[in-house]
Protein: Group 1 truncated hemoglobin
Amino acid sequence: MTEATLYERLGGEAAITATVGMFYDRIMSDESLNPFFADLDMDKQINKQIAFMTMAFGGPHDYTGEDMRTAHARLLSRGLAVEHFQAVANHLQATLETLSVPSDLIEEVMRIVGSTKAEVLNE
Ligand code: HEM
Structure:
């Protein structure tokens, strides 16, 4: 028997879609973060993030976006730093807690998202 992927254990497409929508609502209400997203088409951004997380959590992905280093490189000159990464991660964790996702699954998600830190910050 193969173990269910994290994507499946989180609840699949519907759960990821709901999570990412709430996650960006939180980000866009946070004045320390929303300037970074000011000129983006947020529907497109949300769909890219759904595809990325689907892939990162082992789901049937079709992510064709940029790698994390390239996608965030241009934000460094606009001040992107570790406190922003931490704030984004905290919003994802709070979203999952609000949705009553079990804490062991939240830990798995946060480990995977945390593993992108050096790339996002171009370290
Ligand atoms: C926490 C881990 C993060 C992940 C997994 C992540 C994921 C992504 C993904 C999948 C994209 C789409 C790439 C593409 O356009 O092809 C993206 C773009 C973007 N991310 Fe992140 N991100 C993270 C952290 C951050 C942080 C901390 C910020 C700033 C506060 C940020 C701001 C942006 C912006 C503004 C874009 C659009 C860039 C552009 O189109 O020019 N991200 N991110």
